[in-house]
Amino acid sequence: IGCEDGSVKIFQVVPGGIQFERNLDRRKGRVLCLSWHPSDTHIVAGSIDFFRVIDVASGQTVQRIMVNHHVEKAKRECVVWAIALLSRGTVVSADSFGRVQFWDWEQGTLAESHTVSTSAALSLAVSEKEDSIVVGTSTGATYQLQLLPVKLGGLEKRWVRTKPFQYHSHDVRAVAHSPTALISGGLDAQLVIRPLMEKIQKKGYDAVLRKFTFPHRRLVSCARKARLLLFQFSQHLELWRLGSTEETGKDGEVLPLCRMPEHLVQLKSKGPEHIYCSCVSPCGTWVGYSTASRFQLYRVRCDGDGVSLRKV
């Protein structure tokens, strides 16, 4: 964990949670991003105007590299927003000047620099084979860089920016690189999965752009004892009673119903505000929901086959 006071803390993952183990070397400057070396021997920590490499065994900083001295007349600070430490000893940094830079951390030298955006580069992720990188920027654009041979069939390779994608309208704060796709998430609350073109058979717009908007909260709640389900919609709630069967079977089997699912009641929200969250109690006698400004609680009474709601 990297902290605002410049410290890096190691925690051990234990059954049921995490446990503090020790502090690593503390230096002046906020820690804004971290990356482990694949062998777990070193950690690289990005800050403002510099990053440093820490030896995990000793806890000491073994290299400190300035990232802004290559910018002529740089009057503003250079924020290292994302960083990655590759297995061959290369450090990849993404900064507020829109650059993706490749460093030899043992020598402390800059190997390559790519300006991918006129605004900040906020996030980066590296493929498992370390031959492809996806970068997210504050303009909503994502970029792919690939490690390609300088000459066809040659051994010398360089990083090349190959593909730009403009699928977001706001900052791209999170990216991931799977074996088959580039994945990005932004402040526009969109998750974009962009399959790698060489990994798919059918090449077209539908295959390339897949957007998913995930609900931020659970939209279905269950009253186990009463066998009720509450479904949340933007302006109303629906309360259903589960069907039942007299048969038994194995997991996954579809059993014949002796009683069909039953729609008990629909509760409409008053006013223009959307329902923010909702819940039914385990016993099934209380239903509550909230909008951005108010909370409503109802008592549910089941009289035979009829159901009544009383506002509390």
TrEMBL record:
SUPFAM superfamilies reported for this sequence: WD40 repeat-like
InterPro entries, alphabetized? UTP4, WD40/YVTN_repeat-like_dom_sf, WD40_repeat_dom_sf, WD40_rpt
Q: Name one GO cellular component term.
A: 90S preribosome
Under Gene Ontology molecular function, one entry of this record is:
RNA binding
Which biological process terms from the Gene Ontology are attached to this UniProt entry?
maturation of SSU-rRNA from tricistronic rRNA transcript (SSU-rRNA, 5.8S rRNA, LSU-rRNA)
Task: Give the matching Gene3D superfamilies.
Answer: YVTN repeat-like/Quinoprotein amine dehydrogenase
Q: Which Pfam families match?
A: WD40
Q: What is this protein called?
A: UTP4 protein
Q: Which organism is it from?
A: Mystacornis crossleyi
